[in-house]
Amino acid sequence: MSKLTPEKSIVVLVSGDGSNLQAIIDQISQGKINGKIIAVIANKENAYGLIRAKESNIPAIFIDHKSFTSREDYDAELMNNIDNFSPDLIVLAGFMRILTSEFVEHYHGRMLNIHPSLLPKYKGLDTHQRAIAAGDREHGASVHFVTPELDGGPVVLQSKVPIFEQQDADELAERVKQQERQMYPLVVSWFCAGRLKMANNKAMLDDKVLSEMGYAIG
After folding, report:
1. Which residues pair with 91 in a beta bridge?
2. Lower CB density within 10 Å: C or N end of the chain?
3. Which pLDDT value is given to residue 218?
4. What CATH number is given to the structural domain containing 99?
5. Could you tell me if residue 193 is inside a domain?
6. How far apart are CA 111 and CA 40, in angstroms?
7. Does 96 reside within a domain?
């Protein structure tokens, strides 16, 4: 891995298990990402992602969204906590909250999310069951830059999995998660290497504009 660019600092936001967080932690420890996670923040006290952070000696912060009267107030507090660390990159790793436009614009071009569908299909929740119900033959996940439009930012990378007959949503979700744990660290590594950026609401890798479906292998 090239060390030509300075090491990037990363704050990760989680709500649950944090399996993608762990995948990124592992890749950093293996020297595959030129970055360092400087904080993990969760909106749920029992989020296992907080335990993963503590086990890796990463500051773990719980900010209860139920303690705030409005989404704007919560996001303002979240923003204050993030800015205390002055990160280069914000990674949403299963952070189950809709963020205000003010919050998103504050981190313009510096925030990534992973969504369990082949965007622009199936924005929002219950993506696996919706894909099955629609009779789709394939499903997957997308890593994208975050913009004020829900799950609508420019896609960086997608990974596809076939939908088998008689497969239920839980089985499909697990197969998609396996892909997520490979693709999210890769995209984070691109950003930390200075290869990935967002310009004019487009994702760019190595100064080339990516397609609407993101980077394509081959």
Report:
1. 12, 112
2. C
3. 39
4. 3.40.50.170
5. yes
6. 14
7. yes
Annotated active-site residue 115? The verdict is yes
The single-letter code of the amino acid at 72 is E
Give DSSP secondary structure letters for 133-200: HTT-SEEEEEEEE--SSTT-SPEEEEEEEEPPTT--HHHHHHHHHHHHHHHHHHHHHHHHTT-EEEET
218 falls within a domain: no
Number of domains forming the structure of the chain:
1
- Cα 195 to Cα 217: distance, rounded to the nearest angstrom: 16
Residue 216 lies in a domain: no
Determine contact, residues 140/176, Cβ cutoff 8 Å. Answer: yes
Burial of 145 (0-12, 13-18, 19+ CB in 10 A): buried
User: Of residues 65, 106, 115, 128, which has the active-site annotation?
Assistant: 115
In whole numbers, what is the pLDDT of the chain averaged over residues?
Answer: 95
Report pLDDT digits (tens) over 154-190.
999 999 999 998 889 999 999 999 999 999 999 999 9
Structural domain boundaries, residue 133: 8-209
Cα separation, 24 vs 135, in Å, equals 33
Task: DSSP letter for 203, please.
Answer: E
H-assigned helices in 5-125? 19-29, 48-55, 71-83, 101-106
Overall pTM surpassing 0.85 (yes/no): yes
